[in-house]
């Protein structure tokens, strides 16, 4: 986020009024492109009060019935729970793994330089394609991971085909794709750290753990918050991985809010019923994003000594 | 404490630290290697499987008789190439529109003070967080009414949600890093503000622009939800088409591997190009306070 002092208008010789208006002119074309996409948000709210369906051409207002139906429906709370379990476990695993690997890569050896490049490859893979790749490995007939687990005495691990292990499999694939994202952000943070506090700590003979606890970690925090922001927001609305993996199954073991809404709208063609689910998800995402952004800005200002 | 005690204490601590250093190096490389296997083995396995004949798919060994039968089956036998081409067109044009409309926004957000500036910035960022399903369901209804469903234009327009916030947030940081004096110097030379923008600033941010554009391209290329809902039979993307290779009753795993390999290839190439700027690009210039 930009510091306030930097935003100096450039052209001092022009009439102030045109300078005042100029930024609005500049952003107008882009905003038109984006606001065209804002309409769906308003339409979504509107649709949540109707019984709109793909099946019939006629629709009418039903008041808050879709909302009350949702709030009294057990499936909604199940979907909410699945959404939270998936988002929190995926984010926590990726944050820890990504940070640890970034810290291990800190030393500038040739090995770590090569690894930095190679480690970003999974991030480039589309989540839907990542599922394909993992299906190749987790298939019980041709999968290489089955052979691998046999060595450890585990046979017929069901991966995505069992109620018990489908969440694990989905989070594993998500972790494979997205850990590099955290890794890159934390590395960016590590590169930007000032040198002198660490030299001072070394002179004072501080232990590695103490240096990490009191210097490295607090200074990395603003970067980790940005990583957390982007990962958590994406994980809360995860759709691609789960849909390609098992369409929310087996049973309803992976039916998070996105999947539930998609199925309600397209399989049962009840668009109006699906909308409150998505709007609740939107509110959750928006509020947690705002909270994280505010916390991050506070930390970043502290880190700059402001 | 006399000198002898102090000496032995120092020596102990020195030895402990030395031991720790050796153990640390071993641990570090071990940890990195384990993660490297986790990160890279799936890709390696995918490429291997893509050359395996179906009969040898069941041996999980690295020795086999490589064949290109899977490739010809996928590329000639199915319309995979069409999906590849259409995915490319949609993503590339989406990025192009993003650049034309988004770079000025990034510039305005970096250089000018105006009312509600931070609100505009956060709103743009929040588009990135909007649940894609929430956007695409109403868009699906609108597009069907106005005839944009299953068209290039419709998909490209919606892809702005994927590409625009990213580009604006990264480039804002780049613009802020350029000192105002450069603009003032150009102004003294008699350039008008849009000439300054086009002739001095855009060339300066070019390296950043290229890498962010590639990154935005990758995100657009990877998108799954929008094409799943907003495209039908005439526009196809790779992510959607690839899933078909799993859906049939007898899965040809060799063809699955080919489909994934070709889908990943452009991204890995792009990744190698933008490697240098990627770390910077991903930090979004956002952490500066």
Structural class of chain B: mainly alpha
Outline of chain A? globular
Distance between the termini of chain B: 49 Å
Main sheet makeup of chain A? none
Number of strands of chain B: 0
Element-level helix/strand string of chain A: HHHHHHHHHHHHH
- Largest contact between chains: A-B, 114 and 108 residues
The coarse silhouette of chain B is flat
Describe the protein in words.
The complex is a heterodimer of chains A (306) and B (289). In chain A, 71% of the residues lie in helices and 0% in strands. By secondary structure, chain A is an all-alpha fold. Chain B is an all-alpha fold and 289 residues long. The mean pLDDT of chain B is 82. At the A-B interface, helix 1, helix 3, helix 4, helix 5 and helix 6 of A face helix 1, helix 3, helix 4, helix 5 and helix 6 of B.
Jot down its keywords.
heterodimer, A: 306 residues, mainly alpha, 71% helix, globular, disordered N terminus, B: 289 residues, flat
Give a quick summary of the entry.
In chain A, 71% of the residues lie in helices and 0% in strands. Chain A is mainly α and 306 residues long.
What is the strand and helix layout of this fold?
The complex is a heterodimer of chains A (306) and B (289).
Chain A: H1 16-47, H2 65-71, H3 74-104, H4 110-119, H5 121-124, H6 127-138, H7 144-151, H8 166-192, H9 196-203, H10 208-236, H11 240-246, H12 257-266, H13 271-303
Helix pairs in contact in A: 2-13, 3-8, 3-10, 6-8, 6-11, 8-10, 8-11, 10-13, 12-13
Chain B: H1 3-50, H2 69-77, H3 80-111, H4 117-129, H5 132-146, H6 152-177, H7 180-188, H8 193-222, H9 225-230, H10 238-247, H11 253-282
Helix pairs in contact in B: 1-11, 2-11, 3-6, 3-8, 4-6, 6-8, 7-8, 8-11, 10-11
């Amino acid at each position: 986020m930009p510091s306030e002092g930097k935003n100096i208008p450039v052209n001092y010789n022009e009439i102030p009024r045109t300078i005042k208006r100029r930024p609005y002119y500049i952003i107008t074309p882009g905003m038109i492109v984006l606001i065209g996409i804002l309409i769906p948000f308003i339409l979504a709210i509107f649709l949540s009060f109707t019984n709109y369906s793909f099946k019939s051409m006629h629709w009418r207002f039903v008041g808050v019935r879709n909302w009350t139906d949702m709030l009294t429906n057990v499936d909604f709370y199940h979907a909410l729970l699945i959404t939270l379990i998936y988002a929190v476990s995926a984010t926590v695993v990726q944050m820890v793994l990504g940070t640890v690997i970034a810290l291990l890569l800190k030393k500038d050896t040739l090995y770590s330089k090569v690894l930095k490049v190679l480690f970003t490859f999974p991030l480039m893979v589309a989540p839907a394609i990542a599922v394909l790749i993992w299906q190749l490995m987790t298939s019980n007939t041709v999968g290489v991971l089955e052979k691998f687990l046999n060595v450890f005495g585990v046979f017929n691990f069901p991966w995505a085909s069992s109620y018990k292990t489908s969440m694990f499999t989905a989070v594993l694939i998500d972790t494979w794709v997205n850990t590099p994202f955290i890794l890159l952000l934390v590395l960016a943070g590590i590169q930007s750290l000032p040198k002198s506090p660490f030299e001072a700590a070394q002179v004072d003979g501080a232990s590695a753990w103490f240096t990490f606890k009191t210097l490295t970690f607090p200074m990395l925090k603003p970067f980790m918050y940005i990583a957390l922001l982007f990962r958590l927001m994406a994980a809360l609305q995860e759709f691609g991985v789960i849909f390609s993996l098992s369409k929310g199954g087996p049973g309803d073991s992976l039916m998070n809010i996105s999947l539930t809404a998609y199925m309600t709208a397209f399989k049962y063609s009840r668009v109006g019923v699906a909308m409150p689910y998505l709007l609740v998800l939107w509110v959750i995402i928006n509020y947690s994003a705002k909270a994280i952004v505010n916390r991050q800005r506070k930390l970043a200002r502290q880190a700059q000594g402001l | 404490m006399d000198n002898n005690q102090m000496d032995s204490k120092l020596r102990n601590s020195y030895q402990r630290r030395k031991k720790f250093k050796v153990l640390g190096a071993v641990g570090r490389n071990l940890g990195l290697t384990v993660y490297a296997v986790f990160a890279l083995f799936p890709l390696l396995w995918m490429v291997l499987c893509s050359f395996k004949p179906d009969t040898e798919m069941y041996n999980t060994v690295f020795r086999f008789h490589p064949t290109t039968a899977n490739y010809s089956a996928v590329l000639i036998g199915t319309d995979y190439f069409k999906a590849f081409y259409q995915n490319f067109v949609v993503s590339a044009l989406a990025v192009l529109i993003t650049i034309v409309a988004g770079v000025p926004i990034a510039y305005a957000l970096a250089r000018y003070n105006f009312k509600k500036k931070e609100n505009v910035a956060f709103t743009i960022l929040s588009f990135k967080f909007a649940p894609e399903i929430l956007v695409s369901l109403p868009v699906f209804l609108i597009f069907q009414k106005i005839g944009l469903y299953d068209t290039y234009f419709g998909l490209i327009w919606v892809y702005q949600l994927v590409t625009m916030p990213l580009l604006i947030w990264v480039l804002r940081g780049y613009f802020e890093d350029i000192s105002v004096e450069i603009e003032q110097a150009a102004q003294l030379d008699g350039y008008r503000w849009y000439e300054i923008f086009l002739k001095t600033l855009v060339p300066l941010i070019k390296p950043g622009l290229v890498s962010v554009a590639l990154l935005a391209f990758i995100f657009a290329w990877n998108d799954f939800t929008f094409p799943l809902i907003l495209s039908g039979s005439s526009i196809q993307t790779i992510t959607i088409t690839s899933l078909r290779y799993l859906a049939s009753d007898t899965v040809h795993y060799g063809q699955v591997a080919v489909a994934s390999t070709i889908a990943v290839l452009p991204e890995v190439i792009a990744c190698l190009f933008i490697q240098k700027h990627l770390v910077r690009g991903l930090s979004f210039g956002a952490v500066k306070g």
